[in-house]
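User: Quick sanity check before I run a bigger batch. Here is a single chain. Can you write out its predicted 3D structure?
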Amino acid sequence: MLGFKGVDHVSFSVTDLERSERFYAEVLGFMPLLDFGYARMLVDRASGFMLSVVRHDAAGGGPFSELSTGLDHLGFTAETREELVEWERRFDEYGVTYTPIRDMEFSHHLNFRDPDGIALEFTAPYPILTAWLQELRERDVPREEIQSRVTEYLASLQS
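Assistant: Done. Predicted structure follows.
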């Protein structure tokens, strides 16, 4: 049966393979796996998620911008807001550019940049979002019901 099974990997075009591999390995904890010369493959051992950094000889160079068509950002999952605070400390230690944690409607967000300015994010969902996503995995929830719940939830935040 056809269907989306999950995310296997993401590849980022970068300006410096060494610098990018060092960032993803030392700061984010990815394990270097393969070196193809023009690309490096890294893996998160706990999840099996793979990330590659690729240096294209014909690339135009320059920093990443989410204002161009293509990738806006890549979001990683965190479990709690406290975990995001730990990431902020780590980013300070490594001099990583980041925006302080934002407590949004459905989750806590910590946005940061890799050495090429690629926009990345850690998100720690609130229990209500986690429960809703679990329910969506277990049963077909009509779009109208989803919209009604979201509207009711957002209204409750206003009071």
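Strands lie at 9-13, 31-35, 39-43, 50-54, 74-77, 98-103, 107-113, 119-125.

User: Great, the batch can go ahead then.
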